[in-house]
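Exercise: predict the fold of this chain.
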Amino acid sequence: MMQSVNLGLAGISPAMRPSWWTPWNDQLAAMKAHAKPLPELIARRPQAAEILRDATSPSGIDPARLLYLPLTSSKVKEWVALLNARLNIVGYAPVDGF
């Protein structure tokens, strides 16, 4: 516990500590439960539609078939991870997903 406190005081976030990470596959059910269709975000944030389409372009997947999850950090919350149907990350975009 003291090591964790010391690292925190040194500015090292728990997110930067691999010992706090969980295996990707262990989180798939939770990701599936919380991921939302990307067209919903585009409808809620029409001003970000071009940013989201540009971020999906390298994947070659139609944005209508993608999902998203908000990303947060201690500094910003205006990012989303773009996911394919198998919940693999295919891109990121600087858009508030909340």
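Check your answer against the key: The chain has four helices and four strands.
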